[in-house]
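lol so apparently i was supposed to do this last week
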Amino acid sequence: MPEGDTIFRTATALRRWLGGRRITTARSGVPGLDASRLVGRSVDTVETRGKHLLIRLSGGLSVHTHMRMTGSWHVYPAGEPWRKPVRQARLVLAAGERVAVCFNAPTVELLGARDERSHPSLRRLGPDVVAPEAPDPVEVRRRARIRAAASPTIAELLLDQQMVSGIGNVYRSECLFLCGLHPATAVAELRDDQLDDLVATASRLMRVNARATSAPSRSFGPSSDDRGLPSAGRTWVYRRNGRPCRRCGSPVRRGLLGPQARAVYWCPVCQAARAPAAPGAMPGPAGQVGAELEVRTATTADAATASGIVCGPTASCSARRSTTAAPPS
Ligand SMILES: [Zn+2]
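anyway here it is w/ zinc ion bound
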């Protein structure tokens, strides 16, 4: 799933090509979405809130999309063939010399200003880690305490968009490594300074990567501490299970955490748990996540992708590919 920095780069590309232009034609593949409401409106701007993307149109209407695991935005010069089948297009917007196509996104909807304030996801979002100002630590701590029951471990809390918004699977593993915290650390046991450090690290990395204009690869190396990280696009632990930790050489481990069983990666030495490991369980406070543990050796797919971040069919990757057509400016 594309994370906040990727969505931010997609918004940058869309803003470049659609911003200030009038929508001349629009077509919807979403049942109930009346695309004719978009025609004739101009695109005021394109914004992100965490992993949500909002195309702001004149007259107070917005197009809201969320990519989840499958969606992507592409921008093409008018008349050029698309890289995905027409049947996968959920929304097509023609403006100026370009056509923006949203493929396969599970969330594509039109929102008025009032809809947005009462939207079940948008109204609950925590501070955006990609926003120009880093999230306020006091507000983050307050939200973390509220969300601790639903997201009892730090690895789950980092993905909880009601705590802060924008962090996804790659950044949570990388930031936990950079802060030396075991993924199964109980939120209740986390000190304020540890939470502050984690969110500040995520925010710093994601803000830089969101606005980088040169290399498409994301960098996870803070400048003062990146000696073990060969180049941009390399990760410390993400998708490196079974491979040696870039700092200490111990094999990186992989486990599944939370109700959605999302994979998390960590170094058992650099991110040592405070509690001893139970047999067959992810080392961590007793009874938290042992039953959900799955550790495996590196697969062919992991090995093939370990040298760089693979975004899959995501917004930013697709926007970049199409840009010959649409380079983020
Ligand atoms: Zn290590």
